[in-house]
């Protein structure tokens, strides 16, 4: 193959393999991350067949890191963290400390240097955001007390990783690949690093906080969706690159701050929505690139180390989290839920381990052990949750009469209502008009901020993706008269409408479309009517034209 096609080949093989194996993993009720990582293993140099470009893969992974960290910043919620700060902050710090020490202890048994053991241990300390949120959403736990604790815990872990991404290069530079550097050299390197970070943070808070929302507001005023999307990506990539070039901080930290400041803008929801496809695409390539570095031979050559790494993640981390949650007086169900949620590692583990490997402060074997631990624990996590679900069902049945329930989501108690899916610009206005006409409404909204906004107005609201069966059932579709899909995703709406009609064949369904093809698709999947926004706008404008001179019909004179 010619050299100039290596990027195309990398993208094609990466996306195709990731899609196929990700879909298979999802079919097996595993996280798609497992499929993405295995796709990387197949495209790596340690397996036969196609071998991805070893120079391009790290660069694509770096773009994935930037967009992943931008997404973390964009969804960073200080309010959510503060609501559970009394347990999430000390709990996460304690659990990270335990996991790091366990990993360091294993590294000592393998004869590694102290710095290598600390990097290895810290890589095992943080859970995957993707895996945790998916498990919580499937069980309708995000809006419960235990769900908020788990998310707050995750935010603290993410912040700890952001700080580590700043400190690790400084430590590596001070040590120069050995542990002979004195305390003065390490302190000097850390002081210089913190000085650069402080300058970057000050610049972002003083200049970035004003400039970023200002730019987005001006671009949004142009009405060009392409320019707005390009502006969001330019901010993410540009701030990340400039932070590294001008202040010497990592791409990841720059992207995190860009997302965090953008989160303060009124256009943050639109920015998140427009950048999501690009973030998802490069996140997949990030996992594929990580998988390419994994050598499967470690499972045969170092079996007890792989087992010990897995036990640290599944048993060590979980036990620490369970003990801490129980020590703070929370119920057994809460402690088990949080400990099970954290019994895996993911994105940040790869970033930390990859950084350690590139800086020469984590051996290749350590990097492979982190990848092996991630693959195994991500696959085990759904099984652990199945065991927890069965235990919870038996426990609920046994102590239902005497148990003090946690504030879980209460199913909607309503009848003859309208289900409105989506509380964005269209859905919120639609709900307002229906309420003015005394029509009972139940809202289904996936976005947390919009769901909270709907609840604040007194609306019965179910948070989650309507494609999830549990979310749909919570809105009581069997007792509803009408469902309106105000969400713009017609393909997702179509498949959901079929399941909705199966639950309640008598329900009427209206949907929103953006093309004639989408109208046909929605009608074929059970919608009773589909509103084509552009066509309705044209009719409304035509009515306005015909109501103005010189086309307005003269009023008939009285006889």
Widest sheet: strand ordering: 3-2-1-4-5-6
CATH level 1 class label of the largest domain: Mainly Alpha
End-to-end separation in angstroms reads: 88 Å
Counting DSSP E segments of at least 2 residues, the number of strands comes to: 6
Helix amount: 55-70%
Mean pLDDT: 80
Overall number of domains: 2
Count the helices. How many?
A: 23
Quaternary state, please? single chain
User: Which structural class should the secondary elements be placed in?
Assistant: mainly alpha
**Topology pattern, helix = H, strand = E:** HHHHHHHHHHHHHHHHHEHEHEHEHEHEH
CATH topology of the largest domain: the name is Na+/H+ antiporter like fold
Describe the biggest sheet?
A: 6 strands, parallel
Shape: globular
Helix and strand layout, with pairings?
Layout: H1 6-27, H2 32-43, H3 56-74, H4 78-83, H5 85-109, H6 114-123, H7 129-138, H8 145-175, H9 183-221, H10 225-247, H11 251-262, H12 268-292, H13 298-301, H14 303-327, H15 332-341, H16 347-358, H17 364-399, E1 418-421, H18 425-436, E2 441-445, H19 448-456, E3 461-463, H20 469-474, E4 482-485, H21 490-503, E5 508-513, H22 516-524, E6 529-532, H23 533-546
Parallel strand pairs: 1-2, 1-4, 2-3, 4-5, 5-6
Helix pairs in contact: 1-2, 1-12, 2-12, 3-11, 3-12, 5-6, 5-8, 5-14, 6-16, 7-8, 8-9, 8-15, 8-16, 9-10, 9-11, 10-11, 14-15, 14-17, 15-17, 16-17, 21-22
